[in-house]
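#lab-general

N.A. 3:47 PM
ok so I finally got the sequence cleaned up, no stray characters, all 259 residues accounted for. can someone with queue access submit it? mine expired

B.Y. 3:52 PM
send it over

N.A. 3:53 PM
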Amino acid sequence: MRIVLGLEYCGVGFCGWQSQLQGCGVQDALEAAVSIIAGEKTSIIAAGRTDTGVHAALQVVHFDTTVTRPLTAWVRGVNSHLPAGVAVLWAREVGADFHARFAATHRGYRYVLLNHPVRPAINDGLIGWYHRPLDAAAMNLAAAHLIGQHDFSAFRAAACQAKSPVKELRRAHIERRGEYLLCDFHADGFLHHMVRNLMGCLVQVGAGAQPPGWMHEILIGRDRALAAPTFDGAGLYLTHIRYPAHFGLPETSDRWLYA
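B.Y. 4:20 PM
back already:
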């Protein structure tokens, strides 16, 4: 049978989602825990990979197993074998037509940015930081140039393995809440480092170093070298994954800390 899990994790202390030889990936921890409950070696497939230090309020994964367990075992049982920074939120049994990565129709990320002269300490590693005042209105004007289906090569990491740089960005919105900026991005899919590269450019606009129209120039130029440096991954959270309705899966976590 095929089991799908929704989980959350703190990226601090992990070398990203993907399994590594040294066993430091979130995938390594989850596969080990699931294998204990299943009593057999289990491989996990995720909706998407997250980088070192990047977090997930909702990551969706699936695995196949030959054993029958109550759904509670895939939640509480697996959690009992996971490190503190990872937790399964829910489990569902699905048909063989479900695939955590290829069946997803929509993904969303939120970047949480502290805009304050002094760097954070208590939530270090959990949020991004920029010390100079940022103009959220200017950042939203710049972000508006990104909406729609475009070639996002200018915001694509050199190591990106996506077959095409063309993605449909459906939402790009920055909201100020006190000293924090909540930056939301929703799309049919994302390229490697795409959100962090977008954030690097948006911060340049917000700081007044570039006008909002610069974002359009970078987009149509399709040249990564012309864009801003990749922004810190600490404030980035995978927040939404949507599947066709017949699978009946939650598309976001209702425990999202910065909602």
